[in-house]
Amino acid sequence: MEIIIAATKSCQHRPSLEKVLQKAWLPYKVNYFEEHPEIFEKYQLKHSPLLIVDEKVASVGMPEIDIINDLKARNTDISEIRIPKRDKNHMIPKNIGTELGLVEVDVTWGSIQSIKAAQSVHTVGEVEVYQHHMKGLPIIDARKPDTSDGVTIPGSKNIPYDELVGRMEELDESNPSIFFCNGPQCPQSSTAIKNLLGAGYPADRILYYRGGMHDWITLGLPVQKL
Description:
Elements: E1 3-7, H1 14-23, E2 29-32, H2 38-43, E3 50-53, E4 56-60, H3 65-74, E5 94-95, E6 103-104, E7 122-124, H4 126-134, E8 139-141, E9 151-152, E10 157-158, E11 177-180, H5 188-198, E12 206-209, H6 212-218, E13 224-225
Parallel strand pairs: 1-2, 7-12, 8-10, 8-11, 11-12
Antiparallel strand pairs: 1-3, 3-4, 5-6, 9-13
């Protein structure tokens, strides 16, 4: 759903309309008449502001509450309220310059994953991943190599998510494995877990690290080269 506020730069109602949309968690962008004269030509309306939804005028002036409620009901996907995806993005936080501890994070890529990969699978955090590693227990990097940026969590083994079912014999038969990928917006490890469960792999031998490389790196934890 695309929501546009079309208004003059001097419109006194535009800030109020923006606050209404922000409070409703509705994504929008502002197009000023002075910079977009084609709006005049397309809609033949010179009122300010206009609320345009999917290229149709939803309201002239400030919208009624029923219009806002209808838009809220239509906006059921959390991805709709995210910052739009950049044309060129990077999945792994990247170092900034030569100073340790500063990274650049791209917040626009992927699709936000649930905190649980499956109801029967426990989700863990960084402390549990560290303790798991210190005990010598298995950690599985479920990413395809071309999405890894050449780094991984120390001690992990890479088995791409779309190969895991065919390579189940490589998993530990007596201890749970932690599965991870690039972070909360990456579906690779949650897909791997669902595939394994569908193939009959025991849920009590699966742990899900949702934070993945995104949270691992932004928390300043060590990585190793693949």
